[in-house]
Amino acid sequence: MSSPFEYAPAPESRSIVDIKPSYGLFINGEFVDGHGKAFKTISPSTEEVLSEVAEADEADVDAAVKAARRAYTRVWSKMPGRERAKYLYRIARIIQERGRELAVLESIDNGKPIKESRDVDVPTVAAHFFYYAGWADKLEYSGFGNGNPQPLGVAGQVIPWNFPLLMLAWKIAPALACGNTVVLKPAETTPLTALLFAEICQQADLPPGVVNIVTGAGETGRALVSHPDVNKVAFTGSTDVGRAIAKAVAGSAKKVTLELGGKAANIVFDDAPIDQAVEGIVNGIFFNQGHVCCAGSRLLVQESVADEVLERLKRRMSTLRVGDPLDKNTDIGAINSAEQLARIRELSDIGEAEGAGRWSPACDLPSNGFWFPPTLFTGVTQAHRIAREEIFGPVLSVLTFRTPSEAIEKANNTPYGLSAGVWTDKGSLILHMANQLRAGVVWANTFNKFDPTSPFGGYKESGYGREGGRHGLEAYLK
Amino acid sequence: MSDTRIDVRKTYKLYIGGAFPRSESGHSYVVNDTKGTFVANAALASRKDARDAVIAARKAFGGWSAKTAYNRAQILYRIAEVMEDRRPQFVEALRQSEGLTAARAQKALDEAIDRLVWYAGWADKITQVVGGANPVAGPFFNLSTPEPTGVVAVLAPQESSLLGLISVVAPAIVTGNTVVVVSSYARPLPAVTFSEVLATSDVPGGVVNILTGSAATIAPWLASHMDVNAIDLTGVAGDVELATALEVAAADNLKRVRRAPAAEPDWSVDPGIDAMTTFLETKTVWHPIGV
């Protein structure tokens, strides 16, 4: 059903971005061919082939690590912090200057709406480089390294496809600020902004080898994290891969941080401001198509207001606009890949088969590309797979509770512990819930907020270590 | 009539959930002093004992972690007080276990007690040192605070049977974790004596559980236990193969791991705060301002 108040299309221009027909690996300050079989990266919203990207094999990864080691030993670890800082400030400024270009490219390659890449991802990326730039010459005040903090060496970093550029910033900015050099592998479905970032490194005259980008899939990542000359492994992605990495580095001296999956509870009490809570629920699960490890994928709503919350939530969901990521009016973009779409469909079908009530607003989906409508399930219990497993898509499971202790018990009943949300007008209840929830980030009367100054990371099987803030330095210092 | 008195030989037990059970397996092993003379029998902990200890530690976690830091500090200080009361027993245990002279055993005990006092003082300071308010660029109030990781399996050092033991147990519990400790295999007596101190201090049952026996046997069960949140591998220092296997097993539920050092560290140096922060999580709580 189309709305009587249709919006005219408002597409952002693609002309600002120049996508090359093929890209090499970025090693020692230059683009070089990879030895693996080149792969294609496509636009998830149209399935259009955007470019061919080199795949790094073991030899390529080795070359990148060698370049990083050389740059570490000869240049970067010797450079005074205040000089390293200036390079990071330069990078931050270039990101701001080329912000529109980065945002458009991110939306094309990832499928996320331009209003998010433009207003959230890219500004936060620049902010991260600014924040950590300032730490580079103040590390002795960080509280780490017993007054004489030292870099670890070469960092091998593997990042996911949900926030390609933001995850790059979370990994590279603190690593470089602390004096490490890096080899970073972006996800195989979203390599383009990392390659544009490589150009930014060139533009900033960053010494060759300080940042190296190797593209590829799982095998490339495996070669990187298990490379014997890598001193530090940082990974963001699925819990299964995190487990495999933890095993791969066992017995080595590599320092590791893992930022893994989540199944956050977003808890709404009956005294919550309902309209704000509904906005928070929508933001919690439909932001970035639900491709968020800390997404509020389990709504726990107090029984007395469940009907009202659901009614308003459905009304609000009916106004969400799904479609062209480059349209400035789009709220929900494309699912990142055919594979991810298949997983979302499979788990949703299981939810239905297990007896939960499925609902989506009427919405027209484009015929090409990978799309999934915003969806909620009612009548979900803790035994349902959709309440236990990370779906990583725009799918919300709704459960109810009566008392705060029941909410806490349900919220904590998961092997994950990344994030949680609490909605209530009562301050003492917020603090009580925040204390009891076993999660690394608790958003009270808000959700999905990020800031470079604030540590982020999980409890339990959501991984270990923190990124962001002063705490984020610890992972890159000895 | 001979005036030779036959001494009363001791068979020590485990310390689980504040009680002193025998090993479920019924096994014990002989503890000799450094000259090879029989000293006592110690319980040989089994897999079931390890699991019981984890259950006890989990049960104690909620209460212990919820205590005020001030209260936990007092309880740790109280342990030190009770240790002072039992000086002769600890000195004897150290002489037998580590072959120390009386003077050196006294000094080792002093250091162990002082270390406990040092850690006691951290209970209500660590939050201020490693937590803080974050200057978010927006109308939000946000605080990061450390919280205990949960149940920590601790493989105590093999050589330093008291100072080493205190140096791995105190940092884990002072921040609110509960622990299952595998004591030194060859030198369990100071750990046993320590468990008697714990039982008569104000430490709630289950906060510290002490298993005497072989780390090589018990540790794999603890490392793969899905309700253990972290593991300290100090006790298998130097055994790279075992340490690696334990670290691999620990990856199953992404336990926090304090890796085994190449050799047993010098426990007399300032320990720093790493032993505490390894078993802490950081929780960041956000709230909007002005809405």
Automatic annotation (TrEMBL), chain A:
<dbReference type="InterPro" id="IPR029510">
    <property type="entry name" value="Ald_DH_CS_GLU"/>
</dbReference>
<dbReference type="InterPro" id="IPR016162">
    <property type="entry name" value="Ald_DH_N"/>
</dbReference>
<comment type="similarity">
    <text>Belongs to the aldehyde dehydrogenase family.</text>
</comment>
<dbReference type="GO" id="GO:0016620">
    <property type="term" value="F:oxidoreductase activity, acting on the aldehyde or oxo group of donors, NAD or NADP as acceptor"/>
</dbReference>
<dbReference type="InterPro" id="IPR016163">
    <property type="entry name" value="Ald_DH_C"/>
</dbReference>
<feature type="domain" description="Aldehyde dehydrogenase">
    <location>
        <begin position="31"/>
        <end position="477"/>
    </location>
</feature>
<dbReference type="InterPro" id="IPR016161">
    <property type="entry name" value="Ald_DH/histidinol_DH"/>
</dbReference>
<protein>
    <submittedName>
        <fullName>Acyl-CoA reductase-like NAD-dependent aldehyde dehydrogenase</fullName>
    </submittedName>
</protein>
<dbReference type="Pfam" id="PF00171">
    <property type="entry name" value="Aldedh"/>
</dbReference>
<keyword id="KW-0560">Oxidoreductase</keyword>
<dbReference type="InterPro" id="IPR015590">
    <property type="entry name" value="Aldehyde_DH_dom"/>
</dbReference>
<feature type="active site">
    <location>
        <position position="259"/>
    </location>
</feature>
From TrEMBL, chain B:
<dbReference type="InterPro" id="IPR016161">
    <property type="entry name" value="Ald_DH/histidinol_DH"/>
</dbReference>
<dbReference type="InterPro" id="IPR015590">
    <property type="entry name" value="Aldehyde_DH_dom"/>
</dbReference>
<dbReference type="GO" id="GO:0016491">
    <property type="term" value="F:oxidoreductase activity"/>
</dbReference>
<dbReference type="Pfam" id="PF00171">
    <property type="entry name" value="Aldedh"/>
</dbReference>
<protein>
    <submittedName>
        <fullName>Acyl-CoA reductase-like NAD-dependent aldehyde dehydrogenase</fullName>
    </submittedName>
</protein>
<keyword id="KW-0560">Oxidoreductase</keyword>
<feature type="domain" description="Aldehyde dehydrogenase">
    <location>
        <begin position="24"/>
        <end position="257"/>
    </location>
</feature>
<dbReference type="InterPro" id="IPR016162">
    <property type="entry name" value="Ald_DH_N"/>
</dbReference>
